[in-house]
Amino acid sequence: MTKAMRLRDVERALRASGCSPKGGTRHAEWVCPCGAHSANLPRHTVISPGVIADTIRRMPCLPKGWLQ
């Protein structure tokens, strides 16, 4: 079961996994290192468990446990 996380912690984990952000005003699109997968993150202070689970599902090429 996933839990809510702070945006900066999620962004830090994505950067450490080699993902890169693309711009946006309300949401940032994050692209995985292979370039085949992407996920959108809202620019909220706290990211909901549903968005966290969706981000993990959309980034299957990242190693298991990358968001710890």
Q: Could you walk me through the main structural features you see in this protein, from its secondary elements to its overall organization?
A:
The chain has one domain (5-58): Metal Transport, Frataxin, Chain A. 29% of the residues lie in helices and 25% in strands. It has two helices and five strands; from the N terminus they run βαββββα. A hairpin with a 6-residue loop joins strand 3 (27-31) and strand 4.
Helix/sheet category: alpha+beta
- Please state the second-level CATH architecture: 2-Layer Sandwich
Helix content: 25-40%
Please report the distance between the alpha carbons of the first and last residues.
13 Å
CATH class assignment: Alpha Beta
C-alpha-based Rg, rounded: 11 Å
| Order of helix and strand elements from N to C terminus | EHEEEEH
Mean pLDDT level: 93
Number of domains: 1
**CATH-defined topology:** Metal Transport, Frataxin, Chain A
Strand fraction: 25-35%
Total of DSSP H or I helical runs spanning 4+ residues: 2
Uncertain segments: none
Described by the principal axes of the CA atoms, the overall outline is globular
